[in-house]
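Q:
My hope is that you can spare some time for a protein that puzzles me. I hope you can help me see how the letters and the tokens relate. Thank you; the sequence and its tokens follow:
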Amino acid sequence: MHEKICEFPSHKFYGDKLETAESVKRRRPDMVPASFWPSRGSPVVFCHVEGVEEALPVASAEGGVMSQSNQQEVQKVVQIVSDLVVRYQVKTTRITVLSPYRAQMHQITESLKERKLDSVSVRTIVDSQGSEWDYIVLSTVRSLPQAEIPAQPSRRWMTDQLGFLTDDHQINVGLTRARRGLIIVGNKNLLQTHSTWSHLVNFYEEKGYLVDATQFP
């Protein structure tokens, strides 16, 4: 993966031992220009979206269960994918959308079909393990208004409000699937209540990777 994508997970999860191969560093520049990325030339973005999450029924091996979705993030993800494909001619097979929630997967898949972008792969983070793609768009889904986020949330509160996003293993997997570009879409205010996400948001902000939804793409 690109050395800038590698930087945070290497520090957080691998004791700074995860390194980018020299052959990757020497490869030809991609067709997506440096101007696409907030920090020019560093292909990493956290796009802050204050969406509204909702619980939707999804099928499972155990029958119908409830899963989380976020329509504002769906719209932003589809906009980003469309920009990569239409504006920069990135092949759809080189892009994958990840989310921890199957309801969000379904909503994104349906919206991509409407744009005739249904050849873009949409998967859960768990299902993506062991695979890589050039571009990853990661939709974190969970969201709350700033006024409803306590200053010192309990562990139980974080489990209830963040769900899968409290799992460091899933975070690690989600952050290390991209070879050339990583775009995270989520609510920074809620995610920062968890220590790993707080470190990521602060790290990204220092590097210039953090942008508001109105500024990207």
User: Anything to note?
Assistant: The chain is about 40% helix and 25% strand. The first helix runs from residue 3 to 13.
